[in-house]
């Protein structure tokens, strides 16, 4: 059974570091082999490239530009009359994706226009989205890339976001009919809109190319207090052979605290919390500012395990729990 693969969303994690290139170093130091991000377009692309090449961390997902954020935009893919701007944004996303060897781009749908009723504009927005997705599919296919669409819940997070359920997304993907346009399922949003997660994951797994996680309702670490049993959901994904990445898109509880170490208690993963201060780090591993090596007791095998050895070093590829399966950071 192949291990699940996790990537750090550096728009949400390591935010004590203002520079995204430094967040790539921090993610690598924490043991991640991959990162994702929303918008990197204000960053120095050459610095991002250097960070990726120095660490060997893969950039697996970026978003298309949101549009005019000050005017309330959050993507343009389904917004009628903004097709030219969508294509310009896609071109910019392609430039960054090529430079960072990123193979997935989230094609953001956008919001229902202010003053419009969702039911009134739904058909026009769907038609616009389908045409834009077909255009993007043709462009991305020449680059060997995949476009993703992500439902964002309209009950809590964004009442005006057009694409708000996996069922709506699946219906649109069927109409688009292109193999390189897939579903990006954020479990946080899916739980809020629909629930029935184990069945929905199984139903839509053939069209899912990326998953994101956070606890509900507060969008914190997967093992924080909330509605979801991620140990069960991860086991479900393993059982059904999910091969894509799982993006850690959550708000860490506590400054400089990240829950990055999964271990088994019996055959269920528990997440151990540890603190890791990155602000004092000026450069890559081995510097004079390298953090000390805190240790913890790993109850799964009754051996003392160094957090430094597991996460500060890139040599560890996976964590092997007692049942023999592997979960890969």
UniProtKB/TrEMBL annotation:
What highest taxon heads this organism's lineage? Eukaryota
Alphabetically list the UniProt keywords. Answer: Isomerase
InterPro entries for the chain = Sugar_Epim/Isomerase (IPR050417), Xyl_isomerase-like_sf (IPR036237), Xyl_isomerase-like_TIM-brl (IPR013022)
Asked if the Swiss-Prot or TrEMBL record annotates the protein with the keyword Isomerase, the reply is yes
- Xylose isomerase-like TIM barrel domain mapped to chain residues: 25-251
Which GO terms of the molecular function aspect are on file? hydroxypyruvate isomerase activity
Q: Name one GO biological process term.
A: glyoxylate metabolic process
Protein name, please? Xylose isomerase-like TIM barrel domain-containing protein
């Amino acid at each position: 059974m192949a291990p699940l693969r996790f990537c750090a969303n550096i728009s949400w994690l390591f935010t004590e570091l203002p520079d995204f290139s430094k967040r790539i170093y921090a993610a690598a130091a924490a043991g991640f082999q991959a990162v994702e991000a929303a918008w990197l377009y204000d960053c120095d692309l050459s610095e991002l490239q250097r960070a990726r090449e120095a660490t060997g961390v893969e950039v697996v997902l970026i978003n298309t530009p949101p549009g005019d954020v000050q005017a309330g935009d959050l993507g343009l893919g389904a917004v009628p009359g903004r097709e030219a701007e969508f294509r310009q944004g896609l071109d910019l996303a392609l430039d960054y994706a090529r430079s960072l060897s990123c193979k997935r781009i989230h094609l953001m749908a956008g919001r229902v226009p202010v003053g419009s009723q969702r039911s009134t504009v739904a058909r026009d927005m769907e038609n616009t989205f389908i045409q834009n997705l077909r255009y993007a599919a043709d462009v991305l296919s020449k680059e060997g890339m995949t476009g993703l669409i992500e439902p964002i819940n309209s009950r809590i997070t964004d009442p005006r976001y057009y694409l708000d359920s996996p069922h709506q997304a699946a219906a649109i993907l069927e109409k688009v009919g292109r193999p390189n346009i897939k579903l990006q399922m954020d479990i946080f949003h899916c739980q809020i809109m629909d629930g029935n997660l184990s069945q929905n994951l199984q139903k839509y797994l053939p069209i899912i190319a990326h998953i994101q996680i956070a606890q509900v309702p507060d969008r914190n670490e997967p093992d924080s207090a909330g509605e979801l049993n991620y140990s069960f959901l991860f086991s479900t994904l393993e059982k059904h052979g999910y091969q894509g990445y799982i993006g850690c898109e959550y708000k860490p509880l506590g400054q400089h605290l990240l829950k990055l170490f999964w271990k088994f208690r019996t055959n269920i993963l528990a997440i151990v919390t540890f603190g890791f201060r990155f602000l004092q780090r000026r450069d890559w591993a081995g510097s004079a500012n390298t953090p000390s090596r805190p240790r913890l007791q790993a109850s799964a095998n009754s051996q003392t395990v160094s957090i430094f050895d597991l996460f500060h070093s890139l040599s560890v590829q996976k964590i092997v729990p007692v049942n023999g399966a592997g979960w890969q950071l």
